[in-house]
Amino acid sequence: MATIARHSRNSADIALSSMPPHRHTHSDGPVAVSEDAPNEGPNTFNSPSGSPFRRESREAASLSNVANLEDVPPDGGYGWVCTFCVFMINANTWGVNSAYGVFLDRYMTWESFRDATKFEYAMIGGLSISQALLISPLTALLQKRIGTRLTMLLGAVVVFAGLFSASVASRIWHLFLSFAFCFGWGMGLIYIPAMNLLSPWFSSHRSLAVGFATSGAGLGGLAYSLIAGRLIEVSGIAWTWRILSFTSLAANAVCALLLRERPPSVSSSTAGRANRYSFSPRDFLRIQVFLILCWGFVTEFGYVALWYSLPSYATSIGLNPSQGALVQALLSLGLGFGRPVVGYYSDRVGRINMALCMTLLCGVLCLTVWIPARSYVGLLVFAATAGVVSGTFWSTVNPILAEVVGIAEAGSTYGAICFALVLPTTFGEAIALQLAKGEGMHQFLPSQIFVGSMFLVGSVFLWCLRSWKIFEIERKAEDEQRSVLTDMETAGTAAMREVRSSRWLTPKRLFMPRRV
């Protein structure tokens, strides 16, 4: 009996010593034996070498602890309610903003503001987007001070104020203050927090949820472009602005009240609060963040220029304003239906893979379909196809950030990237209109080449990001294989990792067929 007891204790010591640190008991001493157990003596105490039932129970408890530590998202539930709310917020911020292309065409055709230049009209559209991104640091500060819900409600009120005050604009600088700045600030206050709330609710369906939510910008743009075009003809520009202001206020306020942050698990709540609103500018030096920033920076030049130039291009080839508004609406329709499709397949073929293919395809379409489009039908075909792929950055950047920097840092990194995109969103449309020189069908040719080139360059940065991600997957697999090492071996591995880190961009990884 003594021999058996010693053998059991030795087995327990060996088993416990081989367990990972988080599986150890809280005591470093010998395993405690329950005195209340009726049939447990020295020979049958609860050890890894005990009964299969006890061993399975202990493994199940350990897996549960690991799940709690990793904070696995519910992948649905109330997250779908949040998805619909973010969809509506996109429709009533970005969708309303898309309708400015219709207003822009009317302002330029009717010469509504005396001495206003084409450059000034273009700057208003670009500033409305850039101000929404520029305000992201203030948005993060307000979230920390007054909470996410109050921040979004404040944004809904500011959006209303900007749209309503645009209805009484009598000079061009009035439109700058009302739509470009006030509306832009309100859009940033409600849109950025709403998008950051979504990713933590999902894991395997994250891209699908984000794709559906961001499709609100396209479908909202479709609805508001058609509504604005018709209302301008029936009620005039002033009342059109007022109607848009009240509809957006009602929708945004209700959605802000329904949106809910997913509470983190107990084990991750402290880290989550610490990382949620923190971002250091030095993080832009991380290769994965830098590549995503470059991808967004160049493609936003093309995206903003394409979005606001299409109605003006339609007029330049002889179409009437109503046809130009329909072209803009079809671009929004393609965006609305394309983003959920892109999100759905991103979860299956890889988020970086899908973003790369769509960005590349958009550049090709601009150069091969838009340039030859000299008829109404040809322009409608381009608008429908370009709408599907042109907004890929906004529909995939959140899931991609969650993969490359982690969910805890994704929100703050997204806000920092938005802040860095102020320059292209401000000047993208202005550059495109300045490039459009002369008159006739070919005046937009330099702008078309500019837009297509921006998307092609953006796809190159995504190609490099794909290579980095494959390298990171391989590195983690190697580290897992070497998880049990002595201190000397660990130091050697760190030195080897330093050498390998400079080899993430190789022809083999660039062309490797892999789901990333």
From TrEMBL:
It comes from the Eukaryota. Residues 1-57 are annotated as: Disordered. One of its GO terms (molecular function) is transmembrane transporter activity. It is found in: Membrane. GO terms for cellular component: membrane. The keyword Transmembrane applies. InterPro entries: MFS, MFS_dom, MFS_trans_sf, Proton-linked_MCT. SUPFAM superfamilies: MFS general substrate transporter. PROSITE patterns: MFS. Coiled coil: none annotated. Its main location: membrane. It is a multi-pass membrane protein. Pfam families: MFS_1 (PF07690). Residues 78-470 form the Major facilitator superfamily (MFS) profile domain. Residues 41-50 have a biased composition (Polar residues). The chain crosses the membrane at residues 78-101, 121-143, 150-169, 175-195, 207-227, 289-310, 322-342, 354-373, 379-401, 413-433, 445-465. Keywords: Membrane, Transmembrane, Transmembrane helix. Belongs to the major facilitator superfamily. Monocarboxylate porter (TC 2.A.1.13) family. This is MFS general substrate transporter. It comes from Parathielavia appendiculata. The lineage of its organism: Eukaryota, Fungi, Dikarya, Ascomycota, Pezizomycotina.
